Amino acid sequence: MQGITLRLARPADAAAMTVMQRASWLAVYGDLLGEGLLTQLAVTDHLQIWRRRLAAPGPIPMLLCLDEVVIGLLYWQPEQEGEFLTARILALYLHPGHWRQGHGKRLWQAVAMQMRRAGCECVRLWLLDGNQIGEGFYQRRGFVFDGQERTLTSLGQACLQRQMCRLL
């Protein structure tokens, strides 16, 4: 019997998080950015990013595991916006082999509860323009585009992102 669990990430999870995130990146962004662009970030560099994040004080990603194998993560932090506390989603990834099975919804619901308990009143995220899979997922959770856009340069390529938000 397969067991789905939610737990906070530990430093020892960095490699599994890296592998899962890269699989999701290639499935979602491969057509948008090209697989060659995505492979410019070396696996070892990507792993070091997660190791630094997990060693630093601050937000800890919530992991979704299937029989102890990491299949998803949601990484967020609170931000003060005037007098309101907002949750900022920094990363939400699910291994493509587990899409459309309710796992992402379960991860979102657990973390949304954490956000509310932390005193956050709304949640925001930046979505890469053209990410239809992410857009559909977030819209089904009540997120809407708020009209804000930004262009970042990622691995030498300009990437348009649009902000989505929702109340908690």
UniProtKB/TrEMBL annotation:
Protein's UniProt keywords contain Nucleotide-binding: no
InterPro entries to which the protein is assigned, alphabetical: Acyl_CoA_acyltransferase, Bact_Acetyltransf, GNAT_dom
One Pfam entry name: Acetyltransf_1
GO MF, one example: acyltransferase activity, transferring groups other than amino-acyl groups
Keyword Transmembrane tagged: no
Keywords: Acyltransferase, Transferase
Domain N-acetyltransferase: 4-166
Stated name of the protein: N-acetyltransferase
Taxonomic source organism: Aeromonas lusitana
